[in-house]
Write a structure and sequence with these properties.
The chain is of the alpha/beta class. About 35% of the residues lie in helices and about 30% in strands. It contains six helices and nine strands; from the N terminus they run ααβαβαββαβββαββ. The chain has a seven-stranded mixed beta sheet with strand order 3-2-1-4-5-9-8, with helices on both faces.
Length: about 220
């Protein structure tokens, strides 16, 4: 079957390929400066136990590497070959695959946990139910899903960054809106953490931790 790639996927990949080196350098120590994120990721690591976990939209693989350092059996998946090259170079021994979250190739029930750390922000509202259905399928019953995103109502559209021409849409969302979508997709939302913007940030940030409702397995 021939799959036609949506334009938003093509432009997201091209934009991150252009930005990858600058992004990786600029955010090199980002996680080290964020104790709350590290604490929440450490909690996630305990919940998923032995894994396996997939970091969906892993970018340069910093979160993947942090979870790996905590002993999680984790792999990464991303659209951008340039990001994947950085992720592989920085995390020897961790598997990183090129692919789209709109078409996860894994058999149903593969993962104990999925992480979508600021990656659903590039998926338009109308495509979110399909993506969440794919996450639901790929998770084991009672598997955990981590979703992080910027809080807001209006998208941020970027046409240039650090001297590069890009075409990226950052879709901000409300935690209630995301929680309703997760619930409709067969997840129980177990926690919502909303933090205030740090120095150079424009919005609040949210992390939702959801769990696959086992009885929705056959939906
Ligand atoms: C803002 S970056 C976040 C990267 C990483 N998760 C982090 O927290 O540093 C968004 C990432 O999502 C990836 N992404 C966006 N849409 C995707 C899709 N449809 N499938 C896979 N990855 C996607 C982008 O290529 C990019 O690496």
């Amino acid at each position: 079957m021939i799959m036609i790639e949506p334009d938003f996927v093509t432009s997201t990949r091209a934009s991150y390929d252009t930005l990858a080196a600058d992004y990786a350098a600029r955010f090199a120590t980002d996680l080290q400066q964020r104790p709350l994120e590290r604490a929440l990721l450490t909690w996630f690591a305990e919940l998923v136990g032995d894994g396996p976990v997939l970091d969906v939209g892993c970018g340069p693989g910093r979160t993947t590497g942090f979870l790996r350092s905590l002993g999680v059996d984790i792999a990464g998946l991303d659209l951008s070959p340039e990001f994947l090259a950085i992720a592989r170079a920085e995390n020897p021994g961790v598997r990183f695959d090129e692919g789209s979250m709109l078409a996860l190739p894994h058999p149903p029930g593969t993962f104990a946990g999925l992480l979508a750390n600021y990656s659903l922000i590039h998926i338009p509202d109308e495509a979110l139910p399909e993506v969440l259905a794919g996450f639901h399928r790929a998770l084991r019953p009672r598997g955990y899903l981590w979703v992080a995103f910027q809080v807001g109502d209006e998208p941020r559209i970027m046409t240039d960054a650090w001297g590069h021409e890009i075409d990226l849409v950052f879709r901000r969302r409300q935690p209630d809106q995301m929680a309703a979508l997760l619930s409709a997709a067969g997840f129980d939302v177990r926690a919502r953490v909303v933090r205030e913007p740090e120095d150079d940030e424009l919005t609040r940030h949210a992390v939702l931790l959801a769990r696959k409702r086992p009885e929705t397995d056959l939906l």
